[in-house]
Amino acid sequence: MAGARGRGVGRSTGHHGEFLQGRFHCTAIGECPGLVTVPVRSLTSVAEFVPDHTGAVRAHCAPGGTRRLHKARAAARATIAHLRERGEIRFTGGELRIDRTIPVGMGLGSSTADVLAAARAVADAADVELDTQALALLSVAAEGASDPLWSDRPVLFAHRHGHVIEDLGEALPAMLLVHCRLGGPVDTLDLPLAGAAGITVYEELREELRAAVRAGDARGVGAVATRSARLNQSRHYKPGLETLIAVADSGGALGVQVAHSGNVAGVLFPHTHSSEGLRRTRIRAAEQGLRLGPRPVPIGGAA
């Protein structure tokens, strides 16, 4: 049995929606919904866990934080049960504190980041490390649907079943992402599983994305993201998406990606795109009633 610490700390990044989301063939269950996440390291959730023997997990947010922690609490309880079953710990409960920089209800992975941070904090308190399979299953069990923020590689992930459908390659090509908001908060679990397109369409996009990732083709990644964003309009309509795509095209962007279950979008640019070019694109967007973020976020090999 591992020696328990007095406290444990766990961390997770958030994300900025997806490059691709739909239905796919998979060897585990035939076909299932899946997604490829856009990880963003500047969005974070940090959890602190102090174990005890009360049999209960009490969850709190940092001062000023949003108090939606039932999923993080569920993840902490599930992690305790998992580690006790393996004989790793003796404690039965504890105090969980979450501090996050991720907006809630926008499709940016706030709940998944909280869940992962909580699970890692409990494991850290036990002086053990959870493998990626355990993290994936604990996350899906706590949330119902989860993002693969535990992965260092781009993967097509069955976000409602907890398994990797396909490892797409070593790393995403370097890009810059500029944020744009296209609506308000949504309850992501109330949405349909995928857009109206058939599985054949999503399998074609899967093949194109795999080829683009392995070739380091940022423009190919952007093209897949744009098409997936458009297909998702039948599932979760985003006003202004076509206007944003037109602005992106006129500014030399690679494409547009969205949070398929949220209301944010990102304009993707080459990682060498000039500051002046970004400024001009912001002006064009403002003329069309859209507000782009003030600073680009490096993603992929540029992060």
Describe this structure in words.
With 303 residues, the chain is an alpha+beta fold. The protein has two domains: 8-164, Ribosomal Protein S5, domain 2 (2-Layer Sandwich); 169-299, 2-Layer Sandwich (Alpha-Beta Plaits), CATH 3.30.70.890. The chain is built from seven helices and ten strands. The strands form three sheets. Strands 1-2-4-3 form a four-stranded mixed beta sheet. A four-stranded antiparallel beta sheet has the order 8-9-7-10. A hairpin with a 4-residue loop joins strand 5 and strand 6. Helix 1 crosses helix 3 (132-143) and helix 4 (199-215) runs antiparallel to helix 5. The mean pLDDT is 90. Pfam families: GHMP_kinases_N (PF00288). Residues 79-144 form the GHMP kinase N-terminal domain. InterPro entries: GHMP_kinase_N_dom, Ribosomal_Su5_D2-typ_SF, Ribsml_uS5_D2-typ_fold_subgr.
Give the helix/strand layout.
Blueprint: E1 8-26, E2 30-52, E3 57-61, H1 70-85, E4 93-100, H2 110-125, H3 132-143, E5 155-158, E6 163-167, E7 175-181, H4 199-215, H5 218-231, H6 241-250, E8 255-258, E9 264-270, H7 275-287, E10 297-299
